[in-house]
């Protein structure tokens, strides 16, 4: 069976109770931001390409209230088992904020440091809870960053004028405080997600188009491999620089403007690994544009084929898959009624995304449960709303 997603209201009540227990008073500000699943367009965002993610119903929630003591005190559900759940640090006007330990607090500190109205933060107390699986490749960190930013907007009564700037500030937090040179996809969809829609995001212009996902007979099944290989953090920057190298050899500002024909003309002269990395990115950008079209015309067979090609390219050319993700994809593809299946997110563990007839979801789940070498977790994903301030 697929997991039930705890509704936002339930998570907020839990957070309110925790707040009372920890701070002896009631919170008066609350915000949330979702995780995401990417349908297609993997490792294209930092190449100025297209991505096609949707926001999930799983969210990170923050409840809290202002103080005027210059201190930020946060209690959180944390991924690091031995990390403290409660941290305190000073507001940035006293002294610049710096990353440190525990690691989870760096996402929050980074956002505070990049908040557009930092000067208005006099201090706060807050509780953070999440239903986004931590480290599962569904953007738990982006949802924490964007929830923090949205919380600060509510706390200071100072909303961002441009939503793109909000996403960029959260991306900068991840670069500078978590040391991950990520693209813009995760923060963007967490800010801008729309109920009932995927978003075709042009990561060069930062303009997005809504792509409706409305066929009730088709489901998006997210399968968590429940493995997390540490390789992800070290290989990501390597892939990024390999793409930059490919663009340099092709004499392009980024791989977005390179064609397959131009790349092929360099086959044999270009380093073989760099060639394959570029082949993935150029192919994936085109697949993503086609996938948006396939969704618009309701052609699930076409979309499924593109998803399968995307996975194979990520496995063979980009080399960011792993045995568990490959196995999950192969198992899903064997079930009648599955249009396509692929890994989603950065790779080296995390989740797969499968496009399947709604009536066949349980069949996919039992087939995987029977054959998968580890234990998987399942979520039926409905395209949900981006970050928002919540009423208490
Ligand atoms: C991670 C990154 F954070 C994103 O920016 C993106 O590059 C993704 O991996 C791969 O598509 O989630």
Descriptive report:
One of its GO terms (biological process) is galactose metabolic process. It comes from Cloeon dipterum. Residues 106-194 form the GHMP kinase N-terminal domain. The chain is an alpha+beta fold and 392 residues long. Helix content is 40%, strand content 23%. It has eleven helices and 13 strands. The chain has helices at 8-23, 103-114, 140-156, 163-177, 185-192, 231-249, 260-264, 272-296, 300-316, 323-333, 361-371; strands at residues 29-38, 50-51, 53-66, 71-76, 86-90, 124-130, 197-202, 207-212, 218-228, 338-344, 349-357, 377-381, 388-390. It has a six-stranded mixed β-sheet, with helices on both faces. The protein has a four-stranded antiparallel β-sheet with strand order 10-11-9-12. A three-stranded antiparallel β-sheet has the order 2-7-8, with helices on both faces. Strand 10 (338-344) and strand 11 (349-357) form a beta hairpin. Helix 3 (140-156) packs across helix 4. The chain is globular, with a radius of gyration of 21 Å. The relative contact order is 0.18. The mean pLDDT is 96. The structure holds 2-deoxy-2-fluoro-alpha-D-galactopyranose (GAF). 2-deoxy-2-fluoro-alpha-D-galactopyranose (GAF) binds next to helix 5.
